Amino acid sequence: MNFRGSSSDEPEINLIPFIDVLLVILIFLMLSTTYAKFTELQVNLPSAAADPVKERPAQIIVAVAADGRYAVDGQPVDGRDVDALASSLQKAAGGQDHAFLIISADATAAHQSVINVLDAARRVGLNRITFAAQLPAQGSTAQP
C-alpha cells in the first residue's frame, strides 16, 4: 500500500499581488512628481540675435505699450478691448489675407495685452504673425 502517493507539486509563485503593488507604487510616484517649476525660470524679453528680415509685401504693425494701449500702423486704437482692436486690424488689412502682422510689444507689457492682439488677428483672419524684438546690447551676456 502506498499511502504517500506521488507528490510532484512544485511551489508556485503568484505574481498578481506583486504586480498590483508595483502599479500602486508607480501611480503614487507619477502623482507626487513635479516635472517643472515655472517660478524658477528667469526670462528676459524681448531681445533676439536673429538675422534681419527682408522686406515683406504687406505689413501691419501693432504696437503694444506697457500700460496696455494699442496702435495699429501708428494710429492709436480707441479702447483696449479685442473688438476695437479687431476693427482697426480689419481696416489696416484692407481685405488682404496675405498681410503680415508684426507685434511690437513693450518688454514690460502685460501678457494679456499680447494675447488680445493674437485673438483680434484670429478674428480678422490674419494668420501670418511675427514678433518684433531688438538685438541685445553690445557687450552684454545673455543669461540661460
Automatic annotation (TrEMBL):
Record InterPro entries: ExbD
Pfam families named in the record: ExbD
Gene3D superfamilies: 3.30.420.270
UniProt keyword terms in alphabetical order: Cell membrane, Membrane, Protein transport, Transmembrane, Transmembrane helix, Transport
Keyword Methyltransferase attributed: no
Membrane topology type: Single-pass membrane protein; Single-pass type II membrane protein
Top-level taxon of the source organism: Bacteria
TM stretches of this protein: 15-36
Chief localization: membrane
Keyword Amino-acid biosynthesis applies: no
Family according to the record: Belongs to the ExbD/TolR family.
PANTHER family, alphabetized: BIOPOLYMER TRANSPORT PROTEIN EXBD-RELATED, EXBD MEMBRANE COMPONENT OF PMF-DRIVEN MACROMOLECULE IMPORT SYSTEM
Protein name (database record): Biopolymer transporter ExbD
Species of origin: Ideonella oryzae
